[in-house]
Amino acid sequence: MEIYELIRSDRRTLAVEITRDGRVLVRAPRRLSQAAIDGFLSRHEAWIARQLEKRRAAPPPPEPTAAEIAALKDRARAVLPEKVALWARRMGVTPTGVKITSARKRYGSCSGKNSLCFSCFLMNCPEPAIDLVVVHELCHIRVKNHGPAFYALLERYLPDYRERKKLLR
Q1: Strand, coil or helix: 63
Q2: Residue of 48, 55, 82, 143 with fewest CB within 10 Å of its CB?
Q3: Tens of pLDDT along 142-166?
């Protein structure tokens, strides 16, 4: 097994992450035994090796400059509020706000108070994928989790959401 960095916190689940620079991070609950962590890593050893090989074979593109991020944010501010308004009318929901960030880990989120947040990096995706993220977050206004009712609602508005999701990867 590759050398890894162990991060313990008040989380409930165990997770492994391969960073952009090829480090292996293991996130674990504070009280989880080392044996449980070792077992998890051995079960996921093949996946970890594949991900590390991908990183070594094709290093990630360089970090965007501040100017590039600013341009993406400007584009997102021009595109996303209109899309949110259009889909919100169709779906009969009302978000309390729309915010644009430079988040890297997720394209969108919906707060408990129904405020939507989108990453400017969503602008690098094709139009059908952008619509998917907008509709996905608007669905969270009605259903706050990812259970069957959520996916039924998402499918009602975007019957092809599974194909669109592939465009995000």
Answers
A1: coil
A2: 82
A3: 999 999 999 999 999 999 999 999 9
